[in-house]
Amino acid sequence: MTQTARRPRTRRGQETRAALLRAAEEVIGAKGFAAAAIADITRAAGIAQGTFYIYFDSKEHVFRELVLEMGRLTRKTLSDAVAHAPDRLTAERLGLRAFLEIAATRPTLYNVVMEARFVDPGSYDAYFQAFSKNYTRNLSAAVAEGTIRPGDAAIRSWALMGMAVTLGERYGLSRAHTDADRDRVVDEVFDMLERGLRP
Amino acid sequence: MTQTARRPRTRRGQETRAALLRAAEEVIGAKGFAAAAIADITRAAGIAQGTFYIYFDSKEHVFRELVLEMGRLTRKTLSDAVAHAPDRLTAERLGLRAFLEIAATRPTLYNVVMEARFVDPGSYDAYFQAFSKNYTRNLSAAVAEGTIRPGDAAIRSWALMGMAVTLGERYGLSRAHTDADRDRVVDEVFDMLERGLRP
Amino acid sequence: MTQTARRPRTRRGQETRAALLRAAEEVIGAKGFAAAAIADITRAAGIAQGTFYIYFDSKEHVFRELVLEMGRLTRKTLSDAVAHAPDRLTAERLGLRAFLEIAATRPTLYNVVMEARFVDPGSYDAYFQAFSKNYTRNLSAAVAEGTIRPGDAAIRSWALMGMAVTLGERYGLSRAHTDADRDRVVDEVFDMLERGLRP
Amino acid sequence: MTQTARRPRTRRGQETRAALLRAAEEVIGAKGFAAAAIADITRAAGIAQGTFYIYFDSKEHVFRELVLEMGRLTRKTLSDAVAHAPDRLTAERLGLRAFLEIAATRPTLYNVVMEARFVDPGSYDAYFQAFSKNYTRNLSAAVAEGTIRPGDAAIRSWALMGMAVTLGERYGLSRAHTDADRDRVVDEVFDMLERGLRP
DNA sequence: AATGAATGAGAGTTCATTCAT
DNA sequence: TATGAATGAACTCTCATTCAT
Predict the structure, then answer these.
(1) What does the DSSP 8-state code read for residue A86?
(2) pLDDT tens, position by position, C3-29
(3) Cα distances (angstroms) measured from residue B13 to each of A83, A177, B18, B96
(4) Distance of C1' in F21 from CA in A50, Å
(5) Which residues of D touch C (CB under 8 A)?
(6) What ranges make up the beta strands (E) of A52-142?
(7) Considering chain B, what percentage of its residues have pLDDT values greater than 90?
């Protein structure tokens, strides 16, 4: 008869749950999963410790929700960013730029996804497999329509995602870099990607 | 402050310390830092729990040692692999191949470094900064001598390292992939990098 | 830093905290600080081990609280005892008598303060400095009004406090001595103090 | 067949044992019994940890030896100091002065004896009972020969010892006080003791 | 829906002591 | 006699989770 996390049925409940999610993002994203105590989260949310378990089954549970949220956010942001791209390569460029922007804007959420590899590999894999799948489809299409040179789309997708992730970490998360820096990063990287390293 | 980790003074001590390092790599690399208990490590090493603290100050301490070890290993492996490369681009290709091989051969150590971002950011940064520095120098030299097209070497180094890291994760760690797969990955990726995506 | 001892917010919490203080006094006063395990204290209080840390940050923390409590108790008891003394010397006598009574009545708390010298020198010093200050002021006043012979009040205060403490230990703590014994001790000591040892 | 502490049979053994005693006094007297680790002691003595147990059965064992040593030292020092006293009261005065000197000269050993109350009550009691016994005998004799006014010698002995102990702590141990301070303390205290507080 | 107290398993760490050399 | 490694019991403290109100 143990109680299990419910969906909020009232306005107040919705707000509490939302506050918990924000607090969890903040705390976990800043201190890391292990160092983040439920007490830290509820304190940050300004509610009692017990309340946490009304909305989430466990610490892992909120964590997973956050990863899913980042998935939705990334998908939405990228598809918006790419919506009016004139061609595939430009779409890629805009996608990378948008991704760096996410890292800069939501650094804690970004951290959460990265840590998922160690905290909840399942959702980590799901996150990246989803992107890879989509990415691979786009790249294949681009090849098919002759926009880019032929090549293994899956491998390329992982290579490009790896780049994006690390660039997000270095030039997005870091408070030391500006929007202009990120613009330049995208330019440099796409110069390399489009035209290759050969002289 | 009362006692601090000693360097072993006898043969036996050296062996014990080494056994602990191996066990720590195994256990932490497999279960993750948080889930790995000191008891797990000493059990794996076949020694008493207290013995751990003769050689290491804390769990973080062994962890840091492992990251350093991975640093040495990577440096050595890559420099060996690249030693007889005819030109810069080939060197890069050999370097990536060797890196994937490390991931395949020492997956647990690989995991440790990746988790360092969350467990001991200092050593994580040190690890990658060192490689970036070296990488950047090589890329600059290549530009200078006309082997590759001009471009920001630092940004390129992070982009390339990001690729390598993720490819190591996907095609190196995974038991599902073979040496041949890794060869192909390197071919594909270098095709893209050298000649670019443009048709 | 993640969590810190709370002040209880409910009746139940207050009772639990109080029970812990009593149990700590009992156990630490009886076995000594080092030998007293938190588990002993919580067992004596009839609660779970973890509950201790809801109300106290550490073993040192309860210990300090006990020393403070002894400070309050002693101040209150002595000032009550002395309230209606007709003159300074009588006040001193009543004060000593009351002090011995405290030792007899709260032996464990008495022990705690004595051990504070080794466990928490800060609170030990605070305890005695406070008394010395007060004592010194009284002695100075007595000299000023001609009730006692001139002499360095600070030195006298330490000498008299030293006497009191040791007599409390020998004739107060010990179950072998009775109230009558303590009366006699006070008589003897004050005979010496008032009239001196010279024939 | 467990090995037990032996008396040293060689010159070298004697030196090692002596070094351990000195180191134990230093370390235990400075950090307190609980905080002093055997490793601290052997490190201070410049010998290996295991060697400790060649000469002492346990940590308590060295501690007890130190208390005994302090007993011998105090007895010797006081009896030397008092040897040529012209009368009983002067002897008391010289005794107190010598005692303060011990505190100033051997502060760590002094601390050890004080802590004995909590670490090894048996030797603590033995230490003070021995002095009280002797003290009581002297005071009785003084009364008998008319040098001091009649009064309970045992009670007086504890009162006077209590004074001495606390004065030793405040004016002897403290590096803030000088020999001159201690002279004055003795003067003040004996003025009070001899002539009484009454105007 | 919310609160705050309570739980108790479990983790890291210390250290007196023993052992093999 | 001395060494330094090894042991393992014991202890403090943390924290996810549950419970009563």
Answers:
(1) S
(2) 578 899 999 999 999 999 999 999 999
(3) 63, 47, 8, 37
(4) 13
(5) 32-34, 89, 114-115, 117-119, 146-149, 151-152, 155-156, 158-167, 169-171, 184-185, 188-189, 191-199
(6) none
(7) 96
Neighbours of chain C (3+ CB pairs under 8 A): A, D
Q: What is the CATH number of domain D59-195?
A: 1.10.357.10
Q: Using one digit for the tens of pLDDT, what is the confidence trace for A46-58?
A: 999 999 999 999 9
Chain C residues in contact with D133 by the CB 8 A cut-off are none
State the pLDDT at residue D5.
80
Q: What are phi and psi of A37, to 5 degrees?
A: -95, 150
Show the CA angle centred on residue B5, arms to residues B2 and B6, nearest 5°: 110
Q: Alpha-carbon distance A31 to A175, whole Å? A: 17
Asked if residues C93 and C126 have their Cβ atoms less than 8 Å apart, the reply is no
In D32-120, alpha helices (H): 38-45, 52-55, 59-82, 88-105, 107-119
Is the Cβ atom of B84 within 7 Å of strand F at any atom? no
- Nearest CA among D109, D33, D64, D24 for reference residue D16: D24
Indicate the pLDDT class of residue D4, thresholds 50, 70 and 90. Answer: confident
**Does position D94 have pLDDT exceeding 80, yes or no?**
yes
Best CA proximity match to C66, nearest among C5, C7, C127: C127
Residue C24 backbone class (left: φ over 0; alpha: ψ -120 to 50; beta: rest): alpha
Q: Which nucleotide is nearest to D39 (CA to C1')?
A: E15
The domains of chain C are located at 59-195
* C146-174 as b/e: b if 16+ CB within 10 A: ebbeebbbbbbbbbbbbbbbbbbbbbbbe
The verdict on pTM exceeding 0.90 is: yes
The arithmetic mean of pLDDT across residues C78-88, rounded, is 95
User: Which residues have CB under 8 Å from A22's CB, separation 6+?
Assistant: A45
Would you call A196 and B196 a contact, using CB atoms and an 8 Å cutoff?
A: yes
The mean pLDDT of D53-80, rounded to a whole number, is 98
The residue in chain C having the minimum alpha-carbon distance to the alpha carbon of residue A31 is: C2
Q: Dihedral sign, CA of B186, B188, B189, B194?
A: positive
Q: Which residues 58-117 of A interface with strand F at a CB distance below 7 A? A: 58-60
> Residue C197: phi, psi to the nearest 5?
-85, -20
Greater confidence (D176 vs D3) lies with: D176
Rounded distance, CA B40 to CA A58, Å? Answer: 25
**Confidence class of residue A5 from pLDDT cuts 50, 70 and 90?**
confident
C-alpha distances in Å from residue C134, one per residue of C137, C140, C158, C199 = 5, 10, 11, 32
pLDDT digits (tens, 9 = 90+) for D170-193: 999 999 999 999 999 999 999 999
* Percent of the residues in chain C that have a pLDDT greater than 70, as a whole number: 98
Q: Show residues of chain B in contact with A154, CB under 8 Å.
A: none
- Nearest-angstrom CA–CA distance, D191 and D185: 10
- Token pair 């390569």 in the structure block, residue: A89
In this complex, whether B and A touch, counting 3 or more CB pairs under 8 angstroms, is yes
Torsion of CA D147, D151, D157, D159, to 10 degrees: -120
Q: How far is the CA of A40 from the C1' of F16 (A)?
A: 12
The encoded tokens of residue A112 equal 């959460």
Contact at CB, B149 and A197, closer than 8 angstroms: yes
pLDDT grade, residue B1 (50/70/90)? very low
